[in-house]
Amino acid sequence: MPTNSEAKTCQWTNQAGALAAFAEFTGKTQSASHIKPLHWFVACRLVIEGGFDPADIVPRPPFRLERRAGRAPVLHYEPALAGGGERTVLGGLKTKNVDVVVTREGIGPVLAVSCKGVTGAFRNLTNRMEETIGECTNLHITYPALALGYLVLLRANRLVEAALDDAADVATEMEGAAEGAKTLAANDIAMTEGGEPVAGIVRFHNALRELVGRRGIRNDVSRYEAIGFGLVEMHGPQRSALLDSFPFSDSPLKLSDFFDTLYARYDERFVVSAPDLSRVTRRLEWDSTSPAFQLPNLDYSPRTSG
Fold first, then answer.
1. Whose CA is closest to 52, among 7, 114, 105, 116?
2. Phi then psi dihedrals of residue 156, to 5 deg
3. Residue 109 confidence (pLDDT) above 90
């Protein structure tokens, strides 16, 4: 586990690590410790896969790029350069602290991701839609070209009967796990015994579907460019992995499509539509031999020149 000082700065985190941190967290969610690793995963992925300069990202990922004339830059793992916090972005209605932001010098915020982790009280999910819509609208009013993503994780808590069956398996991993399984409130259940999401989860997913798919800067400012929705398994051998049965394969909220969609919207607006700025805005392609690619358990492909 990170020390107190380390917990304030961006750590190297892959998707599996971010999901495990969310699933295994047992403290108070007000600390945001259950979702901070997801911020770090997003920031790291925007560098390695996205080709963004780590110096342009808040929280600053633990990387350093080495530029070489006429050759692809080399990416190095450099924990001492990591930073923390959120970036305050000027909105049309109020300033907003956004979890992960890429800023281009002379242009402003160009890509941002807001992260949410929900551990229970699923019947109240749709009540959060006003906040979700408001954040998107607020930021797009001031920065209509901003490629904005919303990434939300929910715990796939199952009915108490199913949870009790698995409690013995996880008791040695988490103190009090069996007791926790016994006391899950009905409002905290995400999956039925048959493995189907409860009605509140489906309603929330369907509501988010109506908020995604913004393609051009003249489109509805209350829509996100990309939304990623994931249920994290809480029991059995697939614990801490993404549930693959929901969202369905045709859903626009599949987490597997989230980053590609954000990159596409960014390229359309800041590279293809602005060729005079492309020297500044074009995403980097790393040298395929970059030492940073040797980090353990890299679970996505780096953006390379070869």
1. 105
2. -85, 60
3. yes
Distance CA 211, CA 222 (A): 7
Q: Where do we find the tokens 């190297």?
A: 12
Q: What one-character DSSP code corresponds to residue 10?
A: -
Question: CB within 8 A of 56, min separation 6: which ones?
Answer: 102, 103, 104, 105
Confidence category of residue 1, pLDDT binned at 50, 70, 90:
very low
Average pLDDT, the chain: 88
Q: Which two tokens stand for residue 187?
A: 């409002």
DSSP per-residue codes, 18-67: HHHHHHH--S-GGG-TTTHHHHHHHHHHHHHTT---GGGEESPPSEEEEE
- Helical spans, DSSP H, in the chain: 15-24, 36-48, 129-142, 160-170, 177-182, 199-209, 255-267, 278-281
Partners of residue 114 on adjacent β-strands? 150
CB 193 within 8 A of CB 260: no
Flag whether pLDDT at 258 surpasses 60.
yes
102 residue type, one letter = V
Give the Å distances, CA to CA, from 118 to 3, 22, 167: 24, 9, 21
Which residue, among 254, 252, 227, has the nearest Cα to 243 in the 3D structure?
254
pTM to 2 decimal places: 0.89
